[in-house]
Amino acid sequence: MTQDYKREIPANLRGWILKLSMLLLICSTLCPIELHATNIVKNKPSRQSTAKADLNITGTVKDAEGQTLPGVSVSLKGTTTGVTTDANGHYSLKVPDQGGVLVFSFIGYTTVEEVINGRSTINTVMKEESKALSEVVVIGYGTVKKRDLTGSVASIKGEEIGKVPAQNIMESLQGKIPGADITRNSGQTGSGVSITLRGNRSIGGTNSPLFIVDGAIYFGNIADLVPSDIASVDVLKDASSTAIYGSRGANGVIIITTKKGVAGKATIDVNSYYGISKASLYPKVATGLDAVTLRREAYRTAGKWASVADDPKIFNNAELADIAGDIYTNYQDLLLHRGNQEDHHIGLSSGSEKTKVYTALDYYREEGLFTMDNITRYSGRVNVDHTINSILKAGMQAQITYNNQNVRADPLNQANKISPLGAAFNPDGSIILYPNGGSSINPLADEQPGVFANNVTGNNTLATTYLELTPIKGLSIRSNFSVNFQNSRNGIYQGANTIARNGAVARSNFNMSTATNVLWENIISYHKEIGAHTFDLTGVSSYQNRLTEASGEQGDGQLLASQIYYGLQGATSGIVASSGYIKETLVSGAGRINYGYKGRYLLTLTGRSDGSSKLGDSHKWTFFPSAAAAWHVTEESFMKNVKQLDDLKLRVSYGVSGNDPYGSQNAYPIQSLLTNVPFSYGETSAPGYTFNPVVGNPDLSWEKSATLDIGVDFGLFNNRVSGTIDVYDTHTSDLLLPRILPLSTGHGSTLQNIGKTNNKGIEISLSTVNVKSKDWKWSSTLTFTANKEKITQLVTEGVNDIASGYFVGQPVGVFYDYQKIGIWQTSEAAQAAVYGQTPGTIKVMDQNGDGKIDAVNDRVILGNSKPKWSGGFDNTVKYKNWDLNVYVYARIGQMINANSLGFNNYQGTTGNAWAASLDYWTPENPTNAYPRPNSNGGLQYISTLTYTDGSFARIRDISLGYTIPKKFTGTFLKGLRVYANGKNLFTYTKLKDYDPERGGSENYPMTKIVLVGVNASF
Amino acid sequence: MLSTSCKKALTPYNPAGLTAEAVFTTPAGFETLVNAAYSYERWWYGKEEGYSMSEMGTDIWTSGSGDVFPDLNRYVNLQGSNSAVTLMWQQLYAGVNLCNAGIARIDGAGYSATQRNTRLAELQFLRAFYYWHIVETWGNVHFTTEESLGIVTTANRTPVEVFYAQIIKDLQFAVSNLPPTTSDYGRVTKYAAEAFLSRVYLTRGLNKESINAANDVIKNGGYTLLTNYADLWNMANMQNKEVIYAVNYSANLALDDAKDAILYPFGAARGGNNGHLEFIMKYDDQPGMLRDIANGRPFNRYMPTLFLLNLFNDADDARYDGSFKNVWIANSTSRPAGMNIGDTAVFVTKNTVPLATQATKVYRTYDRVKMYRTDGSALDNLHYPTLSKFLDPTRPDINQVASARDVFVIRLPEMYLNAAEAEQKLGNLDSAAYYVNIVRARAAKPGHTTQMRVTSAQMTLDFILDERAREFAGEQIRWFDLKRNNKLVDRIKADNPDAANNIQAFHLLRPIPQTQLDAVTNRDQFKQNPGYQ
């Protein structure tokens, strides 16, 4: 019954909204003249009744510090008569009414009204508004002044993003949004960032927030958005803010707004930088004699080597010659080079009162640490807003991006495995494919001319057009139509003599995909004030359709390497073709009521109902409600005398939002499908179809996160100190977890709404102006985030899901293994023997003390990959024309599983390198660090060596800029700033030679960058 | 109108996805089910996990240096977390479930009556085949003849007798309904089913029935022993007259079972036949030697026990040289002084070579003393006689793991040795000797048939088991041969010093995968096999 109710109401609501918005749209196009006319009529009487003698008024507008203010709008109250102040703050205005009132308004300043009273000179001083409160914050389907905000929203302005150059907006926000955990994925060019807000709620699926760009859902790569084009980023965190996005809101919503054109004289901004990068921290492998010694030790352990005389038993002739000739290769040195990155951006803002245009072009190029690892990106943007008449506006925000990336197959895994003995190159400069006559391919193999190509090109177009109608005061009807169209092509050619093919016949792949996301949304908002009561009503109808089509071809044995991945019809074997189709549709209706009483008491109620093609009939529609209230304490009369406190607001919100954890990857989770099996009788193909191990579940619904958020916003000492503190408690239920089915059913798993997680945390953001004088200004922002994530219920009721690494009471991503407590020492031989070990092997804790080590009783949770806290400390110091920014980022308390600590081959067999200066056990060196090499193998518990504390603090950015004084730049050049910036230059970590932000992988090391740039404004 | 269009918009459309209802209801579609039902054999036969569970952990093999499953090989801390045990459990039951589904759905496939019966017989054979592996490996575990529909979270414990009743019933149906031959190499035939039935009867102590089935195959199946044992392993001679049943692999690797995002997303990590990798000693670190296609890619997973090497009287028995590679020929440009390409670079021998003699040779010698300790345990598990049966010089490149070699599941000699074993158990030692001598006559080196001949007095069960080791070493059967005769523990304790201290009686059943135990909701009924944690 309740489900029927849920299904019916929203459909009606949606229908109602759709009909109403269509009606109004039609109305607006048919009868704009009449509507316009009423507006004129309304103005007429005022002109007639107050018209007396014309008066010329001139004056200058200054700020509190005595600086003139250009661009202030000066108007006669109640009329359309008005001008703006010139570059010197002067204005001149002819008014017909000596008894009228002049209104001075300027963004960021408190509006001033001056009664004319017959004066012909009116100078005025405008005070800066309390910035924090007047800022407009973008929320779902609308905006609100920060003072009226009831939810938890972090807002970052474009200047903040543009301050330090970054290849990706999200990277420049690292540590600046309390509650967000942002890490760069790797040092590969164009590599993305992972971002989670307030921990991981979903176990099996995505925890990535929803991105909205200029009102449209954005599916593309965030790196495609150009940082210099961004006006603001608003991060919606609590359920009250996100519930308006319903089934996609639970991971938080990041709303990106791009710059708009400004009326007045055109401005041209040019931003350019160029920088060089190198590997940040990366472990060295043993070279030279180290490696030789290690192998000798491995064989000595096995009793096969006693002295150098035994070398011929353990090294082949080539290797012996290398040792004698001191011929070694450090492949890391040959592979890792200096990279570079550069970005050139030109932004043009212009417009009249009616039409405002922002146009931008951007070129980005990055060369990675490896050759053949690079990306080039071109993008262009046009944002147009056009006022057609007093009630109708239309516009478009559009960006096109073209990416061209060459992807290098990371060679470091091979470089860290191959023996350092022997030369990498022949005397003629060509590489030796199998150094030392060994069986490991040269890590440089892919760098041979023409043997390897992996090229990705992609286009990403996001265009949103809108039509906005304001037929009567307070009412706005807006229709947004967006298309996000992405296509990509990935061509791969791997010749026979590449790392991937390792001698096998050359292989080519050619894959194409297109994704079309169509979003049509109609938004009605109505603002009404009745006495001290303020109402804002918002209604939304939404239709979203996402279609992905892909095709791929593969073939082996191209005739010519120069064909790379083209002409695959000439492939001689291994020909594979595929094509795919994924479609999902979401239909939604949503509404919101904002109520305010005297600006003191604020209330927000929202609800959204989503209908999805992905869910079965019994769970098609889901409703997501939320409520929030805020109390603006400083608006109360009894607070008027508390001078130190400028602002104090208490907020509380509760709501439910959803998560579709499998995103577009799994559009058909309710269906049980078949999967193909290649098969043959003799040499005759006999294709098979069997059951996909993943069984469909028609009873699926969304994951639901219910969040309680309590927050306080405050400003102290003339807003020299301001901040926000939020505590939250999110209970996520109906987790879509792959339920491992008993394998005896013949099935593997199914998705089920079962399992729960809990995230509790605190977020603090504190901004201070530490020094403010004529020449000096020092301001800081401190952010702090601590989130405690835990699983509270699992599919495997009563027991932990060890195979998946899920433990009740623990976060996702725990490290569960034996616990290394040292190395068995010679004196402990008898005790070691109890465990079947010998001195020099790894000693692990016998947790239950039963005299044996087994998987059930002796593995424990060693740690997890989630930080205990993370934070940022951003400092900006300005002295005259100099500006210095130092940004420290810390991520503390997480464990990583560092592959690099485990890439030692303890058998010491041919072709396996070791970490440099490895402190391994020998009878002469009774260390507890690393076990004794043994050519006979059989060493157990090697995995225990790689768990390590991944805490780090780093100077993420340090930049120094100088703004050229106006007197040198002249009138054409309005502003010029040059700067130098360093990223990741200093890192503090317990790992002496590894960058823990990389998370443990040995591929694509993280980079540190030094760059110089210029911001010019014309 | 709005709600209709809305309903339509929210109906999933998935033209790229196939459902059982759409595919398994036409003859062409049902063929794909039967093809897929065979494909599960490839998970066990020719794969590392399969070798470790069917050949290893016996009297004839121990761990090479690269062994990744020493817990299966030497019973070191064997637990339900073992990935080979888990994978085989998963794939065998997936095979059973597909067979159950096919058997239940075949009447909706639109087949002609003849074709229906043939395909039904194939599916019943495969179900019996998979269940035999399951019941022998894990004992009285989960059993059903019904397709798992929807989300099933329980498992049952079914007595071994129930398994075997169904296995025998399915196989008898297969024998009655399958054609005697097939043009689709790899499909099961009447005599292949009967040969397997002979093995099943033998396992159940139905000795007379086993002999009858074996004899029918021998007399009417049209199979003959190859003259030369070594010829069995020639890549050009895979489909020979001695093979009763084989798991087929293709030289076109796209038709094999390697995991591939497009072709086979749920495929094996290493597709094709991997047997060639597993037994090769580390030769490419030896003076004068370079890894090449002919010598193979040395994974050195498995090393023969000294006991196995000693079983062969290689003066008379061609099967030692036909099974093991003992000499490596120099192929590298970098060689010790005095060694030319084509000269011996490495010589491995189960005999003892005096150090003084070794010192006179340019090539390197690994003799019994270097390879094994005096108690027979392994001393050098990198260098040892290499089982050469599965080497594949036709692979396209040096490091290619997928071989097109078919895996011989049942060869004609098994029929003779099954019959011999059954006759021995019935006390008919003359008959037992008769069958054994047929196998040994073929195995004899030219002119050594007399020396190879055995008498009825020699017909102990142990002798027959030794004979099976000589004939089938490496062919994924040894563990079952020993288990069938309750000889596993005794033989390992006596003949495999590397595993002798670890083997216990409970090891006659493998551990049930931990994932299975964690996933069932009736944990009180479905528990781990005794002895395991």
Termini separation of chain A: 65 Å
Task: Please outline the major beta sheet of chain B.
Answer: 3 strands, mixed
Distance between the termini of chain B: 62 Å
Radius of gyration of chain B: 25 Å
Q: Tell me about the biggest sheet of chain A?
A: 22 strands, antiparallel, barrel
Are there runs of chain B of 5+ residues with pLDDT below 50, and where? Answer: none
Question: Unreliable segments of chain A (pLDDT under 50, ≥5 consecutive)?
Answer: 1-11, 24-51
How big is the Rg of chain A? 33 Å
Query: What value does the average pLDDT of chain B take?
Result: 95
Portion in helices of chain A = 10-25%
Give the DSSP E fraction of chain B (strand runs of 2 or more residues): 5-15%
| Estimated structural class of chain B | mainly alpha
Could you state the oligomeric state of the chains shown?
A: heterodimer
Shape of chain A: globular
- Largest interface, counted by CB within 8 Å of the partner chain's CB: A-B, 102 and 108 residues
Largest beta sheet of chain B: what is the strand line-up? Answer: 5-6-7
Helix run count of chain B: 24
